[in-house]
Amino acid sequence: MNSVRAMQRPTPAAVLELLKPITWFAPMWAFACGVVSSGLPASERWPVILAGIVLAGPLVCATSQAINDWFDRHVDAINEPNRPIPSGRIPGRWGLYIAMIGTALSLAVAATLGSWVLGAAVVGLALAWLYSAPPVRLKQNGWLGNSAVALSYEGLPWFTGAAVMAAVMPDWRIILLAFLYSFGAHGIMTTNDFKAVEGDRKLGVHSLPVMLGEDTAARLACVVMALPQVVVIALLAHWDRPVHAVIVAVLLAAQFVLMVPLLKDPKGKAAWYNATGTTLYVLGMLTAAFALGSGGA
């Protein structure tokens, strides 16, 4: 009997795969941008900074992955049947249990970091459940779903990083940059949707590539990624940070070059662009964070 029960529990390797550590990078990077943009010295705040990094990545983001995979298990059975839940390596309702445990742990850690951090965590976790769980299931609509993910991956972690450092509401310029880069991340989420177009069509998931067509969705994604960066460049110049503005402009110009092959073959080049153009995008984020953190804004 004990051996049967052991077989019904997921292995640590399967749980780790479910939580997708590779996805933790984006919110952890955004959290670091928040820390940098605060302009406050980190030397005396390392315990809370490390706690915040864990909260952004291994807790909130990982929990969102478990939530998504649990409610997306039928789609994954078509698109990616080797994932932990559809393959049976996460058996029974363990996917749901892991999502619930992750939610509770995330809120507990966030509560130790202050009310602003707790508030951001509540919003992020609420969006994670609304994104995947019926009856709302925001991911059924590419406009709403991508907005929720973009805010959770970029804006909220950035806000959290600044709030951890200051222990108060972050400066309005920090919030503005976090919002702009969240807006641009909507385009990144659209390019990420190309990998699941076939399964989304079969199951009625209205991603932007499904609703608009792959070519139109790719063009829209490029515009959405580029437009907020143009605004950031103008703001940095206005805030007397010309060097930072030029760096972001150069990074954007390089993204334009990489967008050319993406637009020619959206489905074939989407993953490639996410590994190249998105890297330049997040480097621009960090540049903008340094601009604010240097005290010149």
From TrEMBL:
InterPro entries: Chl_synth, Prenyltransferase_related, UbiA_prenyltransferase, UbiA_sf. The keyword Repressor does not apply. The chain crosses the membrane at residues 116-136, 174-196, 217-237, 243-263, 270-292. Keywords: Cell membrane, Chlorophyll biosynthesis, Membrane, Transmembrane, Transmembrane helix. It comes from the Bacteria. It is a multi-pass membrane protein. GO terms for molecular function: transferase activity, transferring alkyl or aryl (other than methyl) groups. Gene3D superfamilies: UbiA prenyltransferase (1.20.120.1780). It is found in: Membrane. Its main location: membrane. One of its GO terms (biological process) is chlorophyll biosynthetic process. It holds the Pfam family UbiA. One of its GO terms (cellular component) is membrane. CDD domains: PT_UbiA_chlorophyll. PANTHER family: CHLOROPHYLL SYNTHASE, CHLOROPHYLL SYNTHASE, CHLOROPLASTIC. This is Chlorophyll synthase ChlG. It comes from Blastochloris sulfoviridis. The gene is chlG.
